[in-house]
Specification:
The protein is an alpha/beta fold. The protein is built from eight helices and 16 strands. The strands form three sheets. Strands 1, 2, 3, 13, 14, 15 and 16 form a seven-stranded mixed beta sheet that branches. The protein has a seven-stranded mixed beta sheet with strand order 4-5-6-7-9-11-10, with helices on one face. The chain has a two-stranded parallel ribbon with strand order 8-12. Strand 10 and strand 11 form a beta hairpin. Helix 3 packs parallel to helix 4. The two termini are 26 Å apart.
Length: 343
C-alpha cells in the first residue's frame, strides 16, 4: 500500500514537475490483432484510449511497442490493418501534442515472414510502420542503412530536462526453422554504436523484442500474479545476451526493454560504474485458474508505464489494465510495481 501511495504521488508530481515524465509500454499485442486465445481488439483499443486521455496528466513523452504487433506475420495482413488503425491514433494531435504522441514499434518474431527471418518483410511492418511512414516525423531519427523496412531504427526525444535516444534492434535469433544472421547483427551493432557515439550526450534506451527470460520461480505468466521472491536473477535470451555484451560499453545506455517471453522480470547490471536496467514486459500467455489452455486471456489488456523522476533519480514501474480511458485495474505484486535507481 505504501508503494501504491508513492506511485500516486509520483503521478501527481508529473503534472506539476517538468523533471518527471512517463514512457508507456505496449507488450505483444498479437492476440488482440489476431483475436486469438480470448484476446480482443478492444483490449488494444483501451490501451491507446488510456494513453491519449492521460498523456498530458502523466506527461507521456514516448510510447514503445515491444514487438509482435501481429501473430501471423504477412500471412494475414488483416492483423496489420487492425494494428495500424489503432496505433495511428497516437499520431492524431491532442492538447500539448501537436504532432501526436511520439512512438516506435519493435519487430517481433511473429511479425516476420518467414517467422523469425530478419529483412524479409514487404507488406506488413514495412507498409504500416516502415521508413516511408515515419520519415516525416520530427522524432524519427532514421533507419539502419536507410532500409525501407526500418526494422532497425531510432528515435530522438527530450523530456525532463534531458535528451534521449531510443534504438530499436530488429529480431534476429536462432529459431527451430531459422538461423541467426551473424553478419547482419555485426552490421546493425556497428550502426548502433556509431549512433551512440554521435549522440553521446543523450541518455540511451535499447529496445529488442527478445531480451530477458522469466526468472526461476516466477509466476508472472499467471493471473493473478503472486509476485516474485527475487532470489533468482533472470537470464538474458540469446539475442539479449549479445545486445547486453555489446551495449554495456556505452556509458549513455541506461535502460533496455523487451517482450517475447511471457511474464515479468527485471535485472540491474553494474558495468564500469554504469547501471543498466533490463526489463521484461509480456502478458500474451496469461492464464487464469485453473490455468489450462482454454483459460488464456490473450494478454488481458495489461500494459506498463515507466515514470522517470529526473530530480530524484528514480524509475517507477507500474502495471495495469485499462478498462477505459479513465478506469484501470493495477497489478500490485513486487515484479509488477517497483522502483529502481534511474541512472
Amino acid at each position: 500500500m505504501l508503494l501504491a501511495a508513492l506511485l500516486w504521488v509520483v503521478a501527481l508530481i508529473a503534472q506539476q514537475n517538468p523533471g518527471v515524465f512517463t514512457i508507456a509500454l505496449l507488450p505483444d499485442t498479437q492476440y488482440y490483432t489476431a483475436k486469438k486465445h480470448n484476446g480482443t481488439v478492444q483490449m488494444f483499443q483501451n490501451q491507446i484510449d488510456w494513453i491519449r486521455a492521460n498523456a498530458l496528466k502523466e506527461n507521456i513523452a514516448y510510447v514503445i511497442h515491444l514487438g509482435d504487433m501481429s501473430d501471423h506475420g504477412e500471412k494475414r495482413l488483416k492483423e496489420w490493418e487492425i494494428g495500424a488503425k489503432i496505433m495511428y491514433q497516437l499520431e492524431q494531435p491532442i492538447e500539448g501534442y501537436p504532432e501526436g504522441i511520439p512512438y516506435g514499434v519493435a519487430i517481433g518474431n511473429h511479425d516476420t515472414t518467414p517467422m523469425g527471418t530478419p529483412g524479409a518483410m514487404k507488406e506488413g511492418y514495412p507498409k504500416y510502420f516502415g521508413l516511408e511512414h515515419f520519415s516525416g516525423k520530427s522524432y524519427y531519427g532514421g533507419a539502419f542503412e536507410n532500409q525501407a523496412t526500418s526494422e532497425n531504427h531510432y528515435s530522438l526525444f527530450s523530456a525532463g530536462g534531458k535528451d534521449f535516444i531510443v534504438i530499436f534492434i530488429g529480431y534476429n535469433e536462432k529459431t527451430a526453422k531459422t538461423e541467426k544472421n551473424e553478419e547482419l547483427e555485426e552490421r546493425v551493432f556497428k550502426w548502433a554504436g556509431k549512433l551512440l557515439r554521435e549522440h553521446k550526450n543523450r541518455k540511451a534506451i535499447i529496445v529488442s523484442h527478445s531480451l530477458l527470460r522469466r526468472p526461476e520461480g516466477s509466476e508472472s505468466m499467471y493471473y493473478p500474479d503472486k509476485g516474485y521472491n527475487g532470489k533468482a536473477k533472470p537470464n538474458f535470451t540469446p539475442q539479449g545476451k549479445a545486445i547486453y555484451n555489446f551495449f554495456k560499453d556505452y556509458t549513455n545506455v541506461f535502460l533496455m526493454l523487451g517482450g517475447h517471453i511471457s511474464g515479468e522480470a527485471h535485472r540491474v547490471d553494474l558495468y564500469k560504474g554504469n547501471k543498466i536496467k533490463s526489463i521484461l514486459t509480456d502478458y500474451q500467455s496469461r492464464r487464469k485458474a485453473p490455468f489450462g489452455e482454454e483459460d488464456r486471456n490473450g494478454g488481458g489488456g495489461l500494459m506498463r508505464t515507466l515514470t522517470l523522476d529526473i530530480p530524484n533519480n528514480k524509475l517507477y514501474v507500474k502495471t495495469f489494465t485499462p478498462l477505459s480511458a479513465t478506469e484501470v485495474v493495477y497489478e500490485r505484486d513486487n515484479d509488477s510495481e517497483y522502483v529502481l535507481d534511474l541512472f
